[in-house]
TrEMBL record:
Keywords: Membrane, Transmembrane, Transmembrane helix. This is DUF3231 family protein. Pfam families: DUF3231 (PF11553). InterPro entries: DUF3231 (IPR021617), Ferritin-like (IPR012347). The chain crosses the membrane at residues 264-281.
Length: 336
């Protein structure tokens, strides 16, 4: 059967995918350029070099898409947003953990982009990007495992038979005897703890190098809230005598020289806070105990307020790049 080629314009979803990825990869490129300058461990350096090559390749490909469609190329982040000569702010150990956590973000984002892409070139592009990110995740995880850095989720004892839920109290959790946490609920809590641990280290490091007092106050506020969420998530596992991931606060050095612009650090933390809402929501959807679901709902509300305040600070400082907007036909008619 002969393939029919449709030379259609990018849909709004496809445009959003490319625009968001350009900003994210331009930010990643700055981070990775700085990291690779300071890394001592050969195995970790190879993973960072691979990640940097991916980001640079993505930026070039997206530029080509935009130029072909006559869309303006986003500014994103440039060499002005990174000081590769700054001393190391994080240890090699944290950096490889960071890469693994960011690759999880990437796999989630690119799978979503693939799911709302219609044009063949867009489907093929995000299929390739997703495969590359899976390869990055595998590489980072292998290094973490080989060096004994990674924290594995808890294991459960084998049960002799399949059982079905017979009582409504399976859902309870506020009062009386509550059941043990399920594997589904552990999975969501453990992943969110890992992501929160990675975010806490960034907020700690960034808070000691930012120049703006407003940004420093926000970093400290974000760090305090994420610490509270770490405790909440950890209690979900500890209450059933399950272990939690190790923390990495000690992997921040004593450097006070900023490797990145305040704009980059502020935008990055806001992006991570916003994405946490989605991960909390997914974990909430897997909860079958009401007390756990309530905790996620509370954390979503708290981090939503913090993320919005961060966006307002970005707007105030004119650091927030505007995404493509739909045509406002009412304004066009008024200005005719």
């Amino acid at each position: 059967m002969k393939e029919i080629i449709h030379n259609s314009r990018l849909t709004s979803s496809e445009l959003a995918n490319l625009w968001s990825q350009y900003l994210n990869d331009s930010l990643s490129r700055c981070l990775l350029q700085y990291f690779i300058k300071n890394i001592q461990d050969k195995d970790i350096k190879e993973v960072i070099q691979f990640a940097l090559e991916l980001s640079e390749g993505h930026l070039q490909k997206i530029k080509e898409f935009f130029e072909k469609e006559n869309y303006p190329i986003p500014i994103g982040f440039t060499d002005e947003d990174v000081n590769i000569e700054a001393p190391a702010l994080f240890t090699d150990t944290y950096i490889i953990l960071f890469i693994q956590v960011m690759s999880i973000h990437g796999m989630t984002r690119y799978a979503g982009a693939m799911g709302c892409s219609i044009r063949k070139d867009q489907r093929e592009y995000f299929k390739q990007v997703l495969a590359e990110t899976v390869e990055l995740y595998n590489a980072a995880t292998s290094v973490l495992e080989n060096k004994g850095i990674i924290s594995k989720p808890p294991t459960f004892n084998n049960h002799p038979k399949v059982e079905f839920i017979k009582k409504q109290n399976f859902l309870t959790g506020w009062f009386g005897n509550r059941r043990a946490i399920s594997a589904l609920e552990v999975s969501g809590a453990y992943l969110n703890i890992q992501k929160t641990v990675a975010k806490l280290v960034l907020e700690l490091g960034f808070s000691q190098v930012v120049q703006s007092n407003d940004v420093r106050k926000y970093m400290n506020r974000a760090k305090k809230l994420c610490q509270n969420h770490f405790e909440t998530l950890s209690s979900m596992l500890k209450d059933d005598d399950l272990h939690i991931p190790k923390t990495f606060d000690s992997e921040v050095t004593d450097s006070t020289i900023a490797p990145f612009s305040d704009k980059l650090m502020m935008v990055f933390i806001c992006l991570l806070l916003s994405s946490a809402i989605g991960y909390y929501g997914e974990a909430l959807s897997l909860c079958q105990r009401r007390d756990l679901a309530e905790k996620y709902a509370k954390m979503i509300a708290e981090i939503g307020i913090l993320a919005e305040d961060g966006m307002n600070l970005l707007i105030e400082k004119e650091w927030l790049e505007q995404p493509p907007l739909a045509t406002n036909h009412v304004d066009l008619a008024k200005n005719k």
